[in-house]
Amino acid sequence: MKLDDIDRKILEMLIEDGRMSYVDIGKKLNLSRVAVRERVNQLVKHGVIEKFTVVINSEKFGKQVSAFFEVDCEPAYLVEVAQKLAENPNVASCYQMTGPSTLHMHVLVEDFAALEKFINNELYALEGITRVESHILLRRFKSRTGLKL
Amino acid sequence: MKLDDIDRKILEMLIEDGRMSYVDIGKKLNLSRVAVRERVNQLVKHGVIEKFTVVINSEKFGKQVSAFFEVDCEPAYLVEVAQKLAENPNVASCYQMTGPSTLHMHVLVEDFAALEKFINNELYALEGITRVESHILLRRFKSRTGLKL
Amino acid sequence: MKLDDIDRKILEMLIEDGRMSYVDIGKKLNLSRVAVRERVNQLVKHGVIEKFTVVINSEKFGKQVSAFFEVDCEPAYLVEVAQKLAENPNVASCYQMTGPSTLHMHVLVEDFAALEKFINNELYALEGITRVESHILLRRFKSRTGLKL
Amino acid sequence: MKLDDIDRKILEMLIEDGRMSYVDIGKKLNLSRVAVRERVNQLVKHGVIEKFTVVINSEKFGKQVSAFFEVDCEPAYLVEVAQKLAENPNVASCYQMTGPSTLHMHVLVEDFAALEKFINNELYALEGITRVESHILLRRFKSRTGLKL
Amino acid sequence: MKLDDIDRKILEMLIEDGRMSYVDIGKKLNLSRVAVRERVNQLVKHGVIEKFTVVINSEKFGKQVSAFFEVDCEPAYLVEVAQKLAENPNVASCYQMTGPSTLHMHVLVEDFAALEKFINNELYALEGITRVESHILLRRFKSRTGLKL
Amino acid sequence: MKLDDIDRKILEMLIEDGRMSYVDIGKKLNLSRVAVRERVNQLVKHGVIEKFTVVINSEKFGKQVSAFFEVDCEPAYLVEVAQKLAENPNVASCYQMTGPSTLHMHVLVEDFAALEKFINNELYALEGITRVESHILLRRFKSRTGLKL
Amino acid sequence: MKLDDIDRKILEMLIEDGRMSYVDIGKKLNLSRVAVRERVNQLVKHGVIEKFTVVINSEKFGKQVSAFFEVDCEPAYLVEVAQKLAENPNVASCYQMTGPSTLHMHVLVEDFAALEKFINNELYALEGITRVESHILLRRFKSRTGLKL
Amino acid sequence: MKLDDIDRKILEMLIEDGRMSYVDIGKKLNLSRVAVRERVNQLVKHGVIEKFTVVINSEKFGKQVSAFFEVDCEPAYLVEVAQKLAENPNVASCYQMTGPSTLHMHVLVEDFAALEKFINNELYALEGITRVESHILLRRFKSRTGLKL
User: Fold this and answer.
1) For E66-119, how does the pLDDT look when each residue is reduced to its tens digit (9 = 90+)?
2) What ipTM goes with this model?
3) Chain E, nearest residue to H76 by Cα
4) Separation of alpha carbons B44 and F126, rounded Å
5) Please, which residues bridge with residue G129 across strands?
């Protein structure tokens, strides 16, 4: 699917307000409600829009600590470890990247006690992990929504 | 605002489908449409829900390369550099964390040529940057939506 | 227990001189000996004051070498190694921190021969240790007492 | 001053309870109150005992976050930076060690917001600092009092 | 230009022997000399074949030492440094890569004295270079020709 | 074999155009075709010229991604791992160098999906590999042909 | 044995010329030959002088390559590995130091081929070695004799 | 000068005892005193033997602390810094090597106070030094004399 300018404008509006009505979107673009709906349906059908969702404030949801991890694995265990970590509800994202043979992982937990438990009981217990590096978020300068990271 | 079980269930449903109607949410929870609307309004008002939005597939949107950066700054320049990077449209997120005095940054660009241009023309041109480390995403094992990272 | 200004002033005086009499503390704060005693008892009872103790000069006590260690463990062994090290009389403190999956440890020994013996016979003999980094104290710029590190 | 066994036993008792009376110490060692007082006075006079003090629980005192820092300086600035950091009330200890040309520093602050402020406003503002590494205490396995670290 | 199987076979033969005659290539592929020539011309015209060349044994040519360098630059100087290094006759290749903000460089020199001179007089003299790491080739396990690295 | 100036000039011409005729080379050097042929034969016979070949544009050949790897091995496995990697068709070069006990490897693959497969299925599957570091080529500043790296 | 100024002057002369006669030393110090001999004997007897020896030019002796190694061992194997390396005739010195748990080793070999053989056949074959880092001497700025390193 | 077996045997004897008489050497090799003297003179004249000297026990000479340093310099200052360090009487050896752009240095000092002074007053005061890493010798496994390192 090739995106045109109107598609991109619709996407930008939906990134800013995922519940904006097709009527309101149409008004801004001189399009009918039906035309907007058709375009949005195409964007969903072709997988450009993967999901309508909400952004929740982690601290207000009770997750005080936002931590990044670099997880070194024995190479032969990397995919298996990644798949187990992906099932852990404390793990928000888990990526393999170029650079060192580590997994890059983002974890959200209630507090420091929960972080220590996650590390010692859940992370260090996985076979194939050789070294872990963890850092705590101090300050957000930008946290854009829309495009999947 | 203290969240109860019903709030949490509403949030989970909205994470999965941000356009779910209050009627449908209400049916699942034995609540009226009005009661659901009132709770959602409270969640928005207290900042628990920061935004209704969409998740867009970066590759299908034309951003083929997803890159992580560690940006080392002279300490005195760190906040200034972070604020400039936050204004750059290629930068999706920018965090300060414990660990080394670097900025952690996520960048989405069209292709490798755009990445090279971003690095050499936009990043390396900022005063106060002493060293940059970049890695390219190879594989996503988990990329959860909902809670803000 | 909520601390007020008088509690804090009492604590500061006891940090500077742990044997200061309640009469002398009371004079400085316009309080009776009994009132001071009652407050100190409360501070002890609630665990604000963990211990009355002395600070001993390590060199004059015969511990010439003060060394910091970073101890890398196989993740599955970290807690067990930490508990064994905590029982070692040469180990003054042992912490787990964010950052790399190491234990941070402070060791006081008589001299270099004792340090070499501690490293080769006691530390390297523990199962699960993969790498050790040691550094020797050269100069103290500050070594505050009072708050537990 | 050469310490004998009785001196060492007195020191051990005072480490465990810095307010123990000379009478009680004397009973355990078959010594008179006067003999104990004389020995303690000698230990203080010769600087073996540097201070009578208390150990305060940092969390209960309102210092939730205990952080270690490695501060890299331009070599010519190291002593000056160390002396400025030693004056900062958030800094509990500051050492120069063998190994890399960094300062090893222990910081106690109220919470994460205070930590971020300390880093960005107080630490990064010092001339001569080139890189900082910070780690947060997760778990204490041992924190011995008595001998000065 | 889309390559077909015959193009690929011709390229493989020319990688192994860049002076192979069109007649001999044609025999192996059941093609006329003219047809082979036409295909080779197209491969050159479209830039698939960049160059006919020879592989020279470096040691026998008098270059005893083959060294890899990682050159750290102040980011603002990276492109300029790279361009100057590219003009240096001792430099065989010079790349910018993801990872740390270094240049990756391959150098061939007569002997160790020439290497030391190259480093101290030519490399360290360039403005903007902050750190250099060099390694000497010990053993070649594979050194494939054909595709440009 | 000792090279003289004429040998070196012939080599330079062949590096620039490996199919240059002996007649043309001879004209530039005031030599007969036979004399040039004899010298080239000697250069081949003594192994100074290892091969006549072509340089192929990797991208146009369908290899979009050019990656460098540092492969850490358990020392006892290094030679074995190197020999297996040398047989892998994606591996363009593989060297052992001074510095860390890693193999330095250059890999050319079709695209990122192929890179991820190469890493997870072929590289990480080799026994004795403990850690891998990969970087992607961003920009070529120099890529000289002729002397074997 | 307490050294006085005359002892130190004798040592300095012997460092510069280990075969200097007692008569010549005595002349410079206004001492008899017998008095010098007696002092030298005392210095040898008390182990201040460990050995009379020669300094040989390594390159002229046929050892073209002078290399430093950092050898990482599994901690439990460190002493055993060190003792085996100490027996290897290519190893000139082998030390354990503070810092990382590596052995610091100096190796002298004939040429690069000998170095590669030493590394792959002798060093990597030892059980308990996990990683090796090697560097080649480029230039000596000072190489003092006399005091044992 | 080409060394033969007899030269090598003479060198080995002189390494073990630099004051061994030509008569004694001659007896072991079936050579006359004059023949030995002639060979030794040739070895000195051709620079194979650089010096007759003694090995002094550093601790007994009053140098309690033996320390290794890695000194990072701004590349443009490396040679100048090396030359200044070579003049410092505490510096026993100073080398430039492949690997990182550091100077490798061996220092012998009286005690820790002298080490701290050397670092802060002499080393850190040199212009062009950016970072220093120091390690203390814990145990000698081998310290061979004879060949110059």
Assistant:
1) 999 999 998 989 999 999 999 999 999 999 999 888 899 999 999 999 999 999
2) 0.89
3) E124
4) 52
5) G73
